[in-house]
Write a structure and sequence with these properties.
single chain, about 260 residues, alpha/beta, seven-stranded parallel beta sheet, 8 helices, about 45% helix
């Protein structure tokens, strides 16, 4: 078991899906969690109850990652309430799934403000509460590196965030803070099911067949990689985006 006792982790988009899995993994390993959510009160409160059963001092903070002032207030609230921030996981994302030829200016603005702007603001503010040994993780997506229909805007935003991982790593490295990204292929999540709709089960089978392991990941498996990157033993790993996709992006297009 990894020991995050006495550590404080702030997780954006931390009450559902992969964010929730990461929060539970870190809490099981001893971390106190500051959970961010935007609007789903029921999911937020259910997840907080689960987290507090493991880490009683954990808190819930509402903020829209699209709004710069709210992001900065979120980080400040977490840092002041819990004393410091040792781990930041930037997971929140949203977009309009449209072909680039049909994208409107407000679609671009919202996606980039939330993903890129929210990431930058969160790291800037968190750096004020984070000391030597701090860990910053950005959750990316496979659309940053390969074509997915109607993912053009989000893929561009995630690619920008992966580039910023490298810059932040060099800017914060002299302070002993590492900055990395975690990317993955397809996962079974609410957003995946909404995006693929009635075609989800077929896509799930086809995607699983193209991985080296012939299956999709469990959310806990991706969360475990995030946790590993937060350990002291990972202190020399920085400026990287780690692909946790079971070999999907390396598979041959000729594979059956």
């Amino acid at each position: 078991m990894i020991d995050f006792k006495e550590k404080v982790a702030l997780i954006t988009g931390g009450t559902r899906g992969l964010g929730r899995a990461i929060a539970l993994t870190l809490a099981r390993d001893g971390a106190t969690i500051a959970l961010n959510y935007r609007r789903d009160e029921d999911s937020a409160n259910r997840t907080l109850a689960e987290i507090r059963a493991l880490a009683p001092r954990s808190i819930l903070l509402k903020a829209d990652m699209e709004e710069d002032a709210q992001v900065r207030a979120l980080v400040e609230g977490a840092g002041k309430a819990l004393g410091r921030i040792d781990i930041l996981v930037v997971n929140a994302a949203a977009t309009a799934f449209k072909p680039l030829l049909a994208v409107k200016p407000h679609n671009l603005t919202r996606t980039f403000n939330l993903s890129v702007g929210g990431f930058v603001a969160a790291v800037q503010e968190t750096s004020k509460f984070m000391g030597n040994g701090g860990r910053i993780l950005m959750i990316s997506g496979v659309d940053s590196m390969r074509y997915l229909p109607r993912h053009g805007v989000l893929g561009a935003a995630k690619a920008a965030m992966e580039a910023m991982v490298r810059d932040f790593a060099f800017e914060l490295g002299p302070r002993g803070i590492t900055v990395n990204g975690v990317n993955f292929g397809m996962i079974d999540s609410d957003s995946s099911r909404i995006y693929f709709g009635d075609d989800f089960e077929r896509v799930l089978r086809v995607t699983a067949a193209r991985t080296a392991l012939k299956r999709l990941p469990e959310l806990d498996e991706i969360a475990a990689v995030v946790a590993l990157l937060c350990t002291p033993q990972a202190g020399y790993l920085t400026a990287q985006t780690i692909m946790v996709d079971g070999g999907l992006t390396l598979s041959s297009p000729l594979a059956e």
